Structures
1.
Amino acid sequence: MGHLLALVRSPYLRHRGAYSSFQEAVAAVRSDALVGYNNDEVVMHSLDYMSELKLEDYPILFWLDRLAPETSVILDAGGHLGTKYRAFGSHLRMGDKVDWIIYDLPAIVRAGRRLVEQGELRGPIFIDKLSQAPAANVLLASGLLQYLDVPFDIFLRSLPALPRHLLLNKVQTREGATVFTLENFGCAEIPYQIRNKAEFLKLLDELGYDVIDEWSIPALSRTIQTHPKLGRSTSRGYYARLRGG
């Protein structure tokens, strides 16, 4: 039992613990660790790596290019310090006609605005409140959903209008019940959601979205080391379009 308890509390595992809610996962964060992304010490974590164009980005690039003629505003939710803006910049033909709005946590937005003020980043606008967001043609959420601290439908309904197009990437899914775990960022632990796939697709349908395209990302499959019997998750991407309109 002592060995198992040490494993569950280990600061060296990529993912540990299995919880039924975001709040339960927060309560289980190690006493010597920060909680979540909204900390200055976590903001710069793996920035260069996250800003690289990767294989799993290409379906998003494909659909952004296809949607370019009807796109004037992209809401990049969970866009960090413009990681996808940086990665996609030279590969998109949107030019100055598209407003790229990055929504993220206050600590990240503060850092992003500093980069803009210092001239290290040009183009995106940073916001930390959904009430500040304009109506967007496209919601881009690449890697956001596993960290989101509210249900996705509540998040969407907090926007001034439902976006016509959803581009969702790196959504962690499983066939069993939704589970939360903790991801280790060294100085911090971050609640991490692995969604029941069928429930997630049902939610999109109830919101009025048709899934037009879906892909899997085998390299981003995850196992919770403390709970291997839960099996490996499947990382997926989706392009969904609002019905009608």
2.
Amino acid sequence: MNYLVIDLEMCKVPRDYRSKRYKYANETIQIGAVLLDEEFKRIGTLSQFVHPEHGVIDYFIENLTGIKNGQVKHTPRLQKALLHMLNWIGDREYKVYAWSGSDRAQILHEIKAKNIVDEKIASFMEESRWVDYQDIFMKRYEMSRKMSLEEALGRADIDPEGRFHDGLNDAVNTGLLIEKLELNPDYQLVSYEMPEKSSEHLSSSLGEVFAGMELKLA
């Protein structure tokens, strides 16, 4: 059994651009994929830009992901990109891992809206094939709230590769987390201690607060 770790980056579909044909708020612009062997070791990587048919890359998304409109203008649409990835996997038996269930939900939305009908893609999208590793992480460590990938890597003492919100880098880093935790079932997360109370008054402007936030779109 092999393990395909994927991560999507998405752009926004402005409300004025939505219609009965495409009513969703986001559209895929990048698919990052990492193939792991039966020992969860990386054996291949794939990064594809995807041409959005309805959405646009605004300043926020460009700043978050580093992806510009010019990079996706002449790239394949979603169906062709998915088939290219599946041909890259070949005839291997595989499970699909993602950080949260949002990536599968996004692809399902786009398949429906774009009338994509293909047996290989349908097999790829079967619910039984997909694993939500964020959910596994939460249940394993009995967490009361969802963690971002960045926070989970920190708690697992893993130095991330590349920048966050790049599809390939996020897939690579999710793979590193999966490898460490699956090969070390008794691993205990790093504990964070709250800073000591200070008599000094701490304050932040809204700009400073938002500047320090990581907003996960994929």
3.
Amino acid sequence: MLTTIAAALLAFSAVTAPASAAQGPHFPDPPNDKIVIDVVTVNGTGCPQGTAAVAVSTDNTKFTVTYSEYLAQVGVGAKPTDMRKNCQLSLVVHVPQGFTYAIAQTDYRGYANIQKGASFTEKANYYFQGMSQTTPISHKFNGPKDDNWQTTDKLEIDQVVYAPCGEERNFNINTELRVDAGTSNTKETTSFATMDSTDTDYSTVYHFHWKTCPPKP
């Protein structure tokens, strides 16, 4: 059953395409009609059913994925399979007529307690259904570390991939957290990394870029 999350209306003015225009350039102001996201599937060891939530910002410029059980760990109390956790989200983004979107920047946040000699890696990529996947981008953090962490993946305008105009294609997001013990003492210590925190609301934010679409013939 689809989970529907509706965005509130925006205070910005709408941008419309001239009758003879081809697909327009990127522009900073988003459309003012609401965006609705349907969560089609959620799969992965880092996001068991009911532990990932999606919400669109009120200004239509981004959407946020919040996780409650996304944790990878090694050492005392950890199972061998706990060293790597992943999540695959499949979304349908319903955008106002006459517009299409791309994701040009993503902010990942979490918390990590990594022992000396250990490390953790965050990796992510995304793609539209039927289109090529983006090249995965990885960020590695070495221990010792006991703090919040944040990474930002940002593409240049000419590198982003837009959803085809006039089509609804699933937007697929693949993320991964991996903790490597390295030279740390796994019999006496634990190293872990999460995409959320017990004391602060940490999440993943995807930033929209917009284009106008040509009118239908």
